[in-house]
User: Which sequence fits this backbone?
């Protein structure tokens, strides 16, 4: 598994994350756009993931809830612009902190049988960005990306044809 | 008329604007939330404003087109969270530059018979913020705020009762 590179320069409202995955871009895009796949990897391993809506198109909504035995954490947002294999863009809001909306863009860079995922988030203030970093997001991100690695491996084993049409 | 204070610190993706208006907050909020009023002031004086949709509620959409004799400029976005007299929050996208989405929050601060309007925008990059500044937005903003002053004066003359219930 590759390492996740997370950068959050002091005094800026940005968080950047980068990680390479051993799967072709079409497959990585499926894992980001198909809610049946998204729920198998996104977020920390310890939570059960329920996706209420996931509409990766201009103006489409998304909402999911992460649960453990005692708590439930809701998140929602809106996709902005065309969602493609090259680029996705969405707003992101944790329902525990209403009004703290961030903008998250995803770039999927084709490296043949590998894909570089670049995630760029911008917050409304440096303070809101810092609060996100201090919330311990790094553990959740790494957990999720490890699960994405595992999912891509399973999907690759199911559909070895490079055409990606096996669905 | 009051002056507009615009700040855009170098190296940040932020634009902040501040201006005081000689009207109670309920009236200023009406001018921001009722599309029949919004179209009378938002944007440069030289354009004809057509509002296609304006839904100031959580997840509601907005879209308008500014036209002159030869050109049409479309803008759209999505309201995020509850839209109230205290605070509005929306995404903002100029259709001439797809994918360049910004987040714009508005604070209306009650000063009795006057209202301080604070607008905070954050862009996905410092470069996108700089491009917005260099587009000559300041003229359009001042034009719009001058028209808002005029509209608030007309509305105040129509409905002098401080209850603001005259609609």
Assistant:
């Amino acid at each position: 598994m590759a390492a996740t590179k997370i950068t959050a320069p002091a005094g800026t409202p940005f968080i950047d994350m980068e990680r390479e995955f051993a799967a072709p871009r079409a497959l990585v895009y499926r894992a980001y756009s198909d809610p049946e796949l998204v729920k198998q990897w996104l977020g920390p391993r310890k939570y059960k993931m329920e996706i209420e809506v996931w509409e990766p198109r201009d103006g489409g909504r998304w909402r999911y809830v992460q649960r453990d035995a005692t708590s439930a954490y809701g998140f929602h947002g809106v996709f902005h612009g065309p969602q493609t294999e090259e680029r996705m863009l969405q707003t992101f809001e944790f329902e525990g902190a209403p009004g703290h909306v961030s903008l998250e863009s995803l770039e999927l860079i084709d490296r043949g049988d590998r894909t570089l995922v670049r995630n760029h988030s911008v917050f409304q203030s440096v303070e809101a960005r810092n609060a996100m970093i201090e919330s311990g997001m790094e553990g959740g991100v790494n957990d999720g990306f490890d699960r994405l690695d595992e999912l891509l491996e399973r999907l690759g084993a199911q559909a070895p044809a490079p055409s990606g049409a096996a669905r």
